[in-house]
Write a structure and sequence with these properties.
Elements: H1 6-14, H2 24-33, H3 49-56, E1 62-67, E2 78-84, E3 87-93, H4 106-115, E4 125-127, E5 137-139, H5 142-160, E6 165-169, H6 176-186, E7 191-193, H7 200-210, E8 225-229, H8 233-236, H9 241-249, E9 253-257, H10 263-266, E10 271-273, H11 280-293, H12 299-305, E11 306-307, H13 309-316, H14 321-328, H15 332-340, E12 347-351, H16 362-375, H17 410-413, H18 424-429, H19 438-443, E13 449-453, H20 463-471, E14 475-480, H21 485-488, E15 493-496, E16 508-510, E17 513-515, H22 529-539, H23 551-559, H24 566-571, E18 576-578, E19 610-611, H25 615-619, H26 639-644, E20 647-651, H27 667-670, E21 677-680, H28 682-687, E22 695-700, E23 703-711, E24 719-722, E25 751-757
Parallel strand pairs: 6-7, 6-13, 8-9, 8-12, 9-10, 11-19, 13-14, 14-15, 20-24, 21-23
Antiparallel strand pairs: 1-2, 2-3, 4-5, 4-15, 16-17, 17-18, 20-25, 21-24, 22-23, 22-25
Helix pairs in contact: 5-22, 6-22, 7-16, 11-14, 11-15, 11-16, 14-15
The chain binds ligand MGD (2 copies) and molybdenum atom.
């Protein structure tokens, strides 16, 4: 299933980009390496059926279970696989998983082409030439790889201190708990991840406001209105769409806050609030202006549970609908209509994982959005933003399942954090460090060595600075499925990770149900991330923490709060077990003392209330109210620059076929969009003489790239929309390292640019 925009799919298939195609011979070679004479078969359609049947006849098909990591482990869609010997031949959706009655997406079905891709890393590699040049690799043993890594990390620890080692994961998430355990038990607080650009700013904003790390929820039984605020699940989490459509049939009204007319507007019949990127704060304040002035807020809730409402009430007067319309581009009557939804029953919000916070003003914008739902009494109200009941695995205060992270060791290590003076609000509330100033940390001697699990130097604006940072380290090792030159040309060792079909850890937990994978034998010597970390920990001398290298023992430690073990899950039907809840879910947990560690009623904030006026921000000298400032590069804040670059440069809105830098070399998905495409509103294209499929130059004050144009009404006038993660045409070379002072997030979605037809 491809949940893409139909015209985009049509365009892409006419593109002339170079796509890797695996020949039949290469494919057979891969299968042979995988250790099976038979199989491969239906999964790629690259073999003729007759030969597949001949080959497979001798081996029975066996069923097994895993969950997908095509989107780097969220949403963890359940999969049934069928294997012959150790080779997986086909996939189906697992129905008794997190999204029942759904189906895996295009990437999910293409997983086997990634799994058996001829370029998959199979052996540990050590470079034989200097870093910073195209790598020359030499195969080494695992024993040497682990010993070398441990020697260098312990060397840095002895010479400079344990905190000089940084433990990093890119978007892949499954290895985080155990890597965090390694960092803290080694003595370094400097564990960080891609969350420095992703969901963590949303959870930071929410922690500041309410002490709750995970705001928002999909519509429930009692929900009347649901705001879809800067999220496009039809592309970014297609498996969730069915339940949203069901809720629509049950009468839920959707409001879609998005600069683009996405399928969330079209399929959910959403009331569209098409704002200029980076103006969410102004829009939320404009809606609150109407809500407060028309008495649509929840007086009782505000009186009892909100700190700073009077200040807010004064401040929102600066945002009457007409003025808000001029800032945001959303017509004033739409702002009023959205506000009046709050008069009509429980309202919830599905909040962006990242676009709202991908701006220099992102965290304040986010807090303004959440404030709207707080003052209207929708926090933990049935049908509103329901706080989920305690999960099987308890959470840390910033919202991660505890697993085996050893966050108990962190308070002592806090003063050694590399980010402490750069991003003090983040450093106070978020356990992982803010990674975006890695080049500065290296320049200042705060980081000397690094382990990267699925790291990508092109994740950040000005990627060359992150490559230089890697180059400047005494030692670095990366673990990945593939050799990615733009990152791995800057590291010393490259180690092969086992995929989601080949690994056991970690268990997936949804509500009260725990799922364990049933792995097949990895390709070559690929090893699962948890095992690699366990091995490194043991070699570093942390034998007790890492159970002398026993992966199962580490997983059992992780599973402890569930009362389950690897062995029990292995024996359970479908490797799944459900842990009964101790009682029925309860609404308004703040009244019952269920949201604070001291069990007193209220919220887990310094005042015990929803802090519309944040005492933590005040302490750090930041605006305590969710005030609105223009993005630092915008049509209104840089009118001079806007004359030359009048289009808003919105990068990285998700498309169904790719995950960041992944999937470009997997034919089944890359055929949909073989080369980078900039989406333009037909009106903007016409003004520039650009037609469908033209080669165009996208430029701004920091650089330019050459891409193909696609004209679509999905994109509002005055902006461009282009996906990131292309190696050559990398939008991140055109973005600024101008970070949000609260969260440290970069402005991926509100720079300025222009587009012109390339002369041919
Ligand atoms: N311009 C722009 N830039 C952006 C964004 C944007 O919207 N616009 N979005 C930002 C966001 S929200 C995010 S999350 C980041 C993306 O974060 P990135 O870390 O850039 O994500 P990927 O490129 O998908 O993955 C990085 C690497 O992980 C490897 N990998 C995948 N799974 C595993 C695994 O299980 N184990 C190991 N060892 N390796 C694995 C992949 O092969 C890949 O090389 O990008 C950020 N950058
Ligand atoms: N297929 C696929 N799925 C993915 C990923 C992937 O790379 N590919 N990445 C995963 C990751 S790491 C993440 S973080 C999530 C992100 O997934 P989502 O949270 O859905 O984010 P996006 O798709 O980037 O953007 C959602 C919508 O926000 C709009 N938008 C852009 N700027 C603004 C703004 O300033 N304000 C508002 N209100 N809206 C804005 C865009 O037009 C877009 O339609 O997706 C995850 N799922
Ligand atoms: Mo993300």
């Amino acid at each position: 299933m491809v949940s893409g925009e139909p015209d985009q799919v049509m365009f892409s298939t006419t593109g002339k980009g170079k796509t890797m195609r695996q020949t039949r011979r290469e494919f057979l070679k891969t299968v042979a390496v995988a250790g099976s004479s038979a199989a491969l078969l239906e999964c790629t359609g690259l073999l003729r059926k007759a030969s597949a049947e001949d080959l497979a006849e001798s081996m029975a098909e066996v069923k097994g279970y895993t969950y997908c990591d095509g989107c780097n482990h969220v949403p963890m869609c359940g999969m049934v696989y069928f294997r012959r010997g150790e080779v997986i031949t086909r996939l189906e959706t697992r129905q008794d998983h997190n999204y029942p009655n759904s189906t895996i997406c295009s990437k999910g079905y293409a997983q086997l082409q990634e799994q058996y891709h001829p370029d998959r890393l199979r052996y540990p590699l050590k470079r034989t030439n200097p870093k910073g040049r195209p790598a020359k690799w030499k195969r080494i043993s695992w024993d040497e790889a682990i010993r070398t890594t441990a020697k260098h990390l312990n060397g840095v620890k002895a010479k400079y201190g344990a905190d000089k080692v940084c433990f990093f994961t890119g978007d892949p998430k499954e290895m985080r708990p155990v890597l965090q355990r390694l960092a803290y038990s080694f003595g370094s607080p400097n564990f960080g991840s891609e969350s420095s650009t992703c969901f963590r700013s949303v959870s930071l904003g929410s922690l500041l406001l309410s002490g709750l790390p995970r705001p928002g929820a999909g519509p429930g039984k009692e929900t009347r209105n649901c705001f879809v605020w800067g999220v496009n699940q039809s592309y970014s989490m297609a498996t969730a769409m069915k339940s949203l459509l069901r809720a629509k049939e049950a009468g839920v009204r959707y409001f879609v806050v998005d600069p683009r007319k996405t399928p969330m507007v079209r399929t959910l019949d959403g009331f569209h609030l098409p704002l200029r990127p980076g103006t969410d704060g102004a829009l939320a304040l404009g809606i609150m202006n109407v809500v407060i002035n028309e008495d649509l807020y929840d007086k009782e809730f505000v009186g009892k549970w909100v700190h700073g409402f009077e200040e807010l009430k004064v401040y929102v007067q600066e945002f009457p609908p007409e003025k808000t319309a001029r800032i945001t581009g959303v017509p004033a009557d739409r702002i009023r209509e959205a506000a009046r939804a709050f008069a009509d029953g429980p309202t919830t919000v599905m909040l962006s994982a990242s676009p709202v916070v991908h701006h220099t003003n992102g965290n304040q914008n986010l807090r303004a959005v959440l404030t709207l739902f707080a003052i209207t009494g929708n926090f933990d109200r049935p049908g509103g933003m329901v706080v989920p009941p305690p999960a099987v695995l308890p959470s840390t205060t910033d919202g991660h399942p505890v697993f085996c992270r050893r966050t108990d060791l962190l308070p002592k290590l806090q003063p050694l954090r590399a980010d402490r003076d750069y991003f003090p609000v983040w450093a106070e509330l978020v356990s992982e460090i803010q990674m975006n100033r890695l080049p500065e940390y290296v320049d200042r001697g705060r980081i000397k060595a690094m382990l990267l699990f699925g790291g990508n130097a092109k994740m950040w604006p000005q990627p060359h600075l992150y490559q230089k940072a890697l180059l400047g380290m005494d030692f670095s090792a990366a673990v990945d499925y593939f050799y990615r030159p733009w990152t791995h040309d800057y590291v010393d060792l490259l180690l092969p990770a086992a995929t989601c079909f080949e690994r056991l850890a970690p268990a997936a937990v949804f509500g009260r149900s725990v799922y364990q994978r049933q792995p097949v034998k990895p390709l070559g010597e690929a090893r699962e991330d948890w095992q690699i970390i366990t091995d490194i920990g043991t070699a570093l001398g942390l034998k007790k923490e890492f159970f002398n290298g026993s992966l199962e023992a580490v997983i059992n430690e992780d599973l402890k709060p569930t009362g389950l073990t690897v062995e029990q899950l292995r024996k359970a039907e479908g490797s799944m077990a459900t842990v009964p809840a101790s009682g029925a879910p309860k609404p308004r947990k703040y009244e019952l003392g269920m949201l604070r560690p001291d069990k007193l009623p209220g919220f887990d904030t310094p005042t015990g209330k929803i802090e519309v006026y944040s005492t933590i921000l005040e302490k750090h000298g930041v605006d305590p109210l969710p005030t609105y400032k223009e993005p630092s590069e915008s049509l209104l804040s840089n009118p001079e620059m806007a004359k030359k670059y009048p289009l808003v440069f919105m990068t990285g809105a998700r498309i169904p076929f790719y995950t960041h830098t992944k999937w470009r070399d997997v034919p089944w998905v890359s055929e949909f969009q073989p080369e980078p495409v900039v989406n333009l509103n037909p009106q903007d294209a016409k003004a520039r003489g650009i037609r469908e499929g033209d080669t165009v130059i996208l430029e701004n004050s920091r650089g330019h790239i050459t891409v193909k144009a696609h004209l679509t009404e999905m994109v509002g006038a005055g902006m461009v929309d282009i996906y990131h993660g292309w190696v050559k045409q990398d939008v991140n070379t055109m973005l600024a390292r101008d970070f949000d002072p609260i969260s440290g997030f970069p402005p991926y979605k509100s720079a300025l640019c222009d587009v012109k037809k390339a002369s041919v």
